[in-house]
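Example A, followed by Example B.
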Amino acid sequence: MNKIRPKPLIVALAIPLAVGGLAAFLIRDDVALFSSLNQPPLSPPSWLFPVVWTILYLLMGLASYLVYTSSAPQEQIRAALLPYGVSLVFNFLWPVLFFRFQLYGLALVDLLALWVLILVTLRRYLPVSRTAANLLYPYLLWTTFAGYLNLGFLLLN
């Protein structure tokens, strides 16, 4: 078992939490819109989203830490972390597009690109760390569900 490296772990956890926190800060006045929209079936209560996203950000950070600190070749580690980094940009943009600008169609396109990036990241993590790859499955599933909700909002509003 590898020894935990505290500094890289803290940075790895802080990066996705900071991305999510910044997005949440930027849309803080726009989230009330959610409850006023026509809701698709299976829409969860609004309080659930920050809880789920916090858990997902922690899983993403832990996964990136496992990849970063693995004994795989540096080229393979960089190739695995690149789509993850790009996915954080798309992850940040989605709530801004959806809540701040109410661009439901563009937000859905962003979410589809994010879904593909998560899948690419997961596949690149797999040969480096199976555990890291497995930690991304909840993120992929939740993003799939978010896509369903986004499409529902697009069609209903």
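Example B, a separate protein, is given below in the same form.
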Amino acid sequence: MELPRYHRLRSTFYRLQASRCAACQATYFPPRPYCLHCGSRNLEELRLSGRGRVLSLTRVYQPSRGFSDGVGTLTALIELPEGLRLIAQLTDVEPAEVETGQEVEMVVRRLRTDEEQGLIVYGYKFRPVVGARAAEGANSA
């Protein structure tokens, strides 16, 4: 990823910034400059909750170009309360501990290193909700 593009998309990567059409209320992530439903260019910034639940998951064995250190990572389809679905890596969890329907929360982590430009790319990943893990431990004691 080029440095200017990375800086332009920082709010999307760090805060789950979306856009919502003021006319028809359609929500887009990543943000769009115009609404695909009604064509309006009057879109507002919307910060997503950063919480969701796992709908589906898989393990990556053949990573995309530039993500060679991503072999073995867990990737999930996550549904957010705002009605959006996104694909993200899971972190801070063992593969056997993840199941569909599990509550997750967004965290910022290193995604990759761009060796060519010397850029360390950070972005969103999801982990099981910390409070849920603490509550589970208390219930099993």
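On Example B: Residues 137-141 have pLDDT under 50 and may be disordered.
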